[in-house]
Amino acid sequence: MIVFSVQDDVVTAVFTDTERMLLRQIPLLLDDMDTAVGDPGYEVLHRAIYRDDPGASRELDDLIASDRWAMRTSDRKIVERFGEGVTAMTRQEARGFLRSLNEARLVVAARAGVFDSGPGWEEMVPTDQSLAAVAWLGYVQAELIQTLSSG
């Protein structure tokens, strides 16, 4: 069971071996999404910023693409470190950790059809590994957000 704590600027996390194994999968999953055009996970991570103005979306995407890539790469390395057994991060790194968890949650949810099925998908979590992964990622995010908010 995940345990987060925070003191000053240091966030500590304790993960089980299984949870660390799952964390190690996140950077791999997300790295695949950078080039998987047509995959529902790719589509959710690369949505048009301005849906009603494709030209403005492309222009803004061109302006921020390199910064977004650098941030995503840095965020994924934080998750990777925790998958390898690191137990402490700064608050800033915790925000990056949250961003990667959120990206992974969105990718898995898109692939599982959560956005198409609407409310009630949670009832299928016990029988669907993809939905269980979505729920677990949401749980980890919620625990870390609560810890950051209270500390």
Overview of this structure, please?
With 151 residues, the chain is mainly alpha-helical. The protein has one domain. Helices cover 67% and strands 9% of the residues. A three-stranded antiparallel beta sheet has the order 1-2-3. Helix 1 packs antiparallel against helix 3 and helix 1 crosses helix 4. The longest helix is centred in the middle third of the chain and has 30 residues. The model has no long low-confidence stretch (mean pLDDT 87).
- The count of domains is 1
Please outline the major beta sheet: 3 strands, antiparallel
Strand proportion:
5-15%
User: What overall geometry do the principal axes of the alpha carbons give?
Assistant: globular
Provide the structure class.
mainly alpha
User: Count of DSSP E strands?
Assistant: 3
* Lateral arrangement of strands in the main beta sheet: 1-2-3
Overall helicity? 55-70%
Low-confidence stretches: none
Radius of gyration: 16 Å
Please give the structural blueprint.
Blueprint: E1 3-7, E2 10-14, H1 17-33, H2 40-45, H3 54-83, E3 88-90, H4 91-112, H5 114-117, H6 129-150
Antiparallel strand pairs: 1-2, 2-3
Helix pairs in contact: 1-3, 1-4, 3-4, 4-6
Short note summarizing the structure:
This protein has 151 residues and is mostly helical. The protein has helices at residues 17-33, 40-45, 54-83, 91-112, 114-117, 129-150; strands spanning 3-7, 10-14, 88-90. The chain is 67% helix and 9% strand.
Keywords:
globular; 9% strand; 67% helix; mainly alpha; 151 residues; single chain; 6 helices; three-stranded antiparallel beta sheet
